[in-house]
Each structure stands twice: as structure tokens, then as C-alpha cells.
Design a protein that fits this description.
Structural class: alpha+beta
Distance between the termini: 52 Å
CATH class: Mainly Beta
Strand order of the largest sheet: 1-7-4-9-2-12-13
Shape: globular
Helix content: 10-25%
Largest sheet: 7 strands, mixed
Cofactor: Fe(2+)
Order of helices and strands: HHEHHHHHEEHEEHHEEEEEEEE
Number of helices: 10
InterPro entries: Phytyl_CoA_dOase-like
Number of strands: 13
Strand content: 15-25%
Radius of gyration: 19 Å
CATH architecture: Sandwich
Oligomer: single chain
CATH superfamily: q2cbj1_9rhob like domain
Organism: Methylobacterium tardum
GO molecular function, one term: 2-oxoglutarate-dependent dioxygenase activity
Protein name: Non-ribosomal peptide synthase
Number of domains: 1
Length: 298
């Protein structure tokens, strides 16, 4: 008799639960792990602090740390900001990714996200583009990530489910803003694995975890008075072409046929399906206005 997911998971706690890399393909996530190079954490923290919004909002919130600048949070930060690139290519992180994807690795997205006080968070979703490329997503904590300030929540094993979250919401089967509703949807659509577990990835600075495309997850509101920054990086094998897909997971439409800009960070690319770019150049102060300097193709 086959072993169901529910049979190998402990009772739901709603809190952080460690998963080894060997469980990544089964659970859809791994971690949290602790970064050994603590200097990288401090470098990123100083970098984010140094790019506060210089406008009125920045002055009003000057007493709060790590204010997010829209330029700082651009979606292709791995091409623009050397500290973000240097972080993403650390041997410890690449070793983790290699254990999942193999020796040839492209960095195809890198971003800094700052959840401001009062932020409403993010609806439950499946990182559809990451699912389509079979990629690995790393979330890294620069400041504490807690249930109060919007630590990511996930439901293990749901990356294996061919359930459209958007279509389910349109049909009234779930509410993408409500974690309890998502648990109910998982139980209803896959009762063989019920009851499903809600895991909240609460992290200390210097900790990170990996997620697989297709995993159901969401970000609750930030109820605190402080911004909550995090660093995201995505990796893929070079045998798949990257694109931008529609956000609606019920309709996998390619929005841009041109491949996304990638950086080869380990191994080789014998497929040449994706646009390859050189790493961003180290620039004094790492001014985001030097973004174009990062876009030189190799």
C-alpha cells in the first residue's frame, strides 16, 4: 500500500518545520538553513539601508530601518546590483541548488522585496513561471521574518496538485487571501492527503529556505511598525527556455516569447536557449542608476 503525504507528516502546527534537501521534491520546500557567511548578511543589510526612498515618504519614515525604494526592488536586480548577485552565487546556496537541479545552473531572477508596515501581503499563488521552468526559489531573511510581519506561509506537497487556484477562487471554492480557505481547498481536492498542514516560515536574519514552483503559498500582512526586507533568487537548469507567463494559473499563456536575461553561475550552458548576460560590475555605492551597466551580453 502506498504511503500518503499525510502519513509521513506530523500534526499541523502552523509554524516553521524543518525539511531536508532530500525532501524537496516530495514536500515542495527545504529548510530553513543558516548561511555560514554572516558577512554577506551585513553587506546586504547595509546595501538595502543605503537605498532608502529619498522622497517625502523616506523622510517621514526616516526613523524606520530598511525603507524600500522602488528602484531597489526591481525584478531583475540580479543584473543591476552586485551585492545581490554576490549573495546569490555563494557556494553554499549553489551547492543546495545543484543538489536539486544538477551541475549546470542559471540565475534567472534576483530581487529585493521590502514589505512595508501595513502591507497587505500577497495572495496565495504557485509562482507559475517558476513552475514552468522547473526552477528553485530561495528566500533569504535580512531581518526577522515572523507571523506578525508577513512570514511566508505554505502547504507542503501542493506542488504536485493540478489545481488552478485562480479558477478555484472564481468558482467560489477558495479565498486566495485566507490560509484556512486554502487548507480547506487542499483537503477537498486531495482528501487522500488530508488533513493538510500550514507551515509558517519564520526566520532569523541569515536563514533561508528553498521552494519549488507550483507550491501553494502566500504572504500575510505586515502588522508591525517596521519594514520587513527579504532577498529572493531563482535558479533553473539551462535545458528549459525562460519566459514571462500570465499570472492566471488556469491559462498558461506566454506573455513575452523572448527569454528572460540569465547569468550562468555554475557549470555550462550547452543548450543556449536563454539570453546570457555578464554579472553586474562592482560600482562604488552601487547606485541603481547604473543598471544599464549590468546588461552587457556575453
Amino acid at each position: 500500500m502506498s504511503t500518503t503525504l499525510a502519513a509521513v507528516l506530523p500534526p499541523s502546527s502552523g509554524r516553521q518545520r524543518f525539511a531536508p534537501l532530500s525532501a524537496f521534491n516530495t514536500l515542495g520546500y527545504a529548510g530553513p538553513f543558516t548561511l555560514r557567511d554572516t558577512a554577506q548578511v551585513e553587506t546586504l543589510r547595509r546595501f538595502i539601508e543605503g537605498h532608502r526612498d529619498p522622497g517625502i515618504l523616506g523622510r517621514i519614515l526616516s526613523k524606520a530601518r530598511l525603507i524600500g525604494d522602488r528602484r531597489l526592488q526591481q525584478v531583475d536586480g540580479h543584473l543591476a546590483f552586485r551585492p545581490l548577485y554576490d549573495f546569490a552565487v555563494q557556494p553554499q546556496l549553489l551547492d543546495d541548488v545543484e543538489a536539486i537541479l544538477g551541475p549546470d545552473i542559471l540565475l534567472w531572477k534576483g530581487r529585493i522585496i521590502v514589505r512595508q508596515p501595513g502591507s497587505s501581503g500577497q495572495d496565495w499563488h504557485v509562482d507559475f513561471d517558476n513552475k514552468m521552468v522547473g526552477g528553485v526559489h530561495i528566500t533569504f531573511a535580512i531581518a526577522p521574518m515572523t507571523s506578525d510581519n508577513g512570514a511566508l506561509q505554505l502547504i507542503p506537497g501542493t506542488h504536485r496538485y493540478e489545481v488552478s487556484l485562480h479558477e478555484s477562487q472564481r468558482n467560489g471554492a477558495c479565498d486566495l487571501r485566507d490560509a484556512a480557505s486554502m487548507l480547506a481547498l487542499a483537503d477537498a481536492t486531495h482528501p487522500e492527503n488530508a488533513p493538510h498542514e500550514l507551515v509558517t516560515m519564520e526566520l532569523e536574519p541569515g536563514e533561508y529556505f528553498l521552494t519549488k514552483g507550483g507550491l501553494w503559498h502566500g504572504v500575510p500582512p505586515n502588522h508591525t511598525v517596521s519594514p520587513r526586507p527579504a532577498v529572493l533568487s531563482r535558479y533553473m537548469a539551462p535545458d528549459v527556455e525562460s519566459h514571462i507567463w500570465s499570472h492566471d494559473d488556469s491559462a498558461p499563456v506566454v506573455m513575452s516569447k523572448r527569454s528572460l536575461p540569465c547569468i550562468l553561475v555554475r557549470g555550462e550552458d550547452s543548450f543556449r536557449l536563454n539570453r546570457l548576460h555578464a554579472p553586474p560590475r562592482p560600482v562604488a555605492g552601487m547606485d541603481p542608476n547604473h543598471r544599464n551597466a549590468a546588461r552587457r551580453a556575453v
